Amino acid sequence: MTVNVYFDDVKVGDEMPTWSRxxxxxxxxxxxxxxxxxxxxxxxxxxxxKAGNQQGAFGMGNLRYAYLAxxxxxxxxxxxxxxxxxxxxxxxxxxxxxxxxxGKVVEKEVVDGENRVRLETNVMNQNGEATCPGHAVVVLxxx
Amino acid sequence: xxxxxxTLISPAMQEAKGQWSEPRLSPPISLSDxxxxxxxxxWPETPPPLYWDEDYAAGTRWGGIVAPLDFNPFAWPVKxxxxxxxxxxxxxxxxxxxxxxxxxTYGEPMRPGDVISARTRLADFNERQGRFGLMLYTYNEIxxxxxxxxxxxxxxxxxxxx
Lengths: 143, 162
Prior knowledge:
In chain A, 26% of the residues lie in helices and 30% in strands. By secondary structure, chain A is α+β, with helices and mostly antiparallel strands. In chain A, strand 3 (98-111) and strand 4 form a beta hairpin. In chain B, a hairpin with a 5-residue loop joins strand 4 and strand 5 (151-161). Chain B starts with 10 loop residues before the first helix and ends with a strand.
C-alpha cells in the first residue's frame, strides 16, 4: 500500500515533484508501437518539415499526455485517484527535448465526498518554454 | 494549408454536430498490452509495478493490475473505420491535422479482460485565421464505459486542421 501524499498535508501553492524525460525516436517509436500512432510527421524528418516543422519529425501530443499522467501517478502513489487531466499542446516536442512535467496546487475542496485537489500543470522544455499548459484534479486519502 | 476556400466547415460536419455514433467495442484488454503501454510511456525507466506485477497490484486498493489512465484499448484495429463524428471538412483541400489537446474525466479504471464501449460525437467546431492560414478547430466528445456499464472516461478532444 503506497500512499505518497495525504489530503490533510497538501497546501495551496505546493508543487509536485518534477518528472522529466529527454525524448527522441527511441521514445516516439515505442509509443507509436503501443498506440499504433505511425503518423508520418512523427516518424520521418521530411514529413515533419512538410507539416511545417523545420526541425523535422516531432513527438506525439499523446505521449506528453502520458507523461502528465505518469507524473501525477508517481506523485500521489497507487492508493489515490486521478479524476481529471486537461492540456493544450502549444509548442512542438522537438527531437532531444528534455520535457519536465510540473504542477502546482491551486485549490482543495471536498466534492461528493471526494477530497479533490486541483493543480495547474505544464510540460516545460529545456529552454523554459511552456509546451503544454493544463490542469489536473486528483483525489487524495485522509490521514 | 487551406488556400482558395472561404471555409473548411462542410455540410457533413453541420449534419454530424451533436449526433452520437453507434457504440464501438474494444477487443478485451490484455495484460501484455498494459505492460507494453507502461514500458513505452515510462521509457527508459522501469514502470510502476501496479501495471505489471500481479502480486504487488493485488495488495493495492485496486486488488489487481489496472491500466495506465491514458491506455488506449482501441489501438491496433484490424479494420480501420472512420467514426461518424470525424465528418470530413470541405472537399478538395489537402489539410494537415494535429492534436490540439484534450480534457479527460476518469471513473472506473480499466483492467485486464475489460471490453470498453466507446461512443463519439462532434460536439462543436469553429475556424479562424492562424499561424498556418485558415485553421479549423473541432471538438470531439468520446465517452467510454466498461462491460458492466460503468463510466470509464469522457474526453473532449481538440483537433486542429490547416
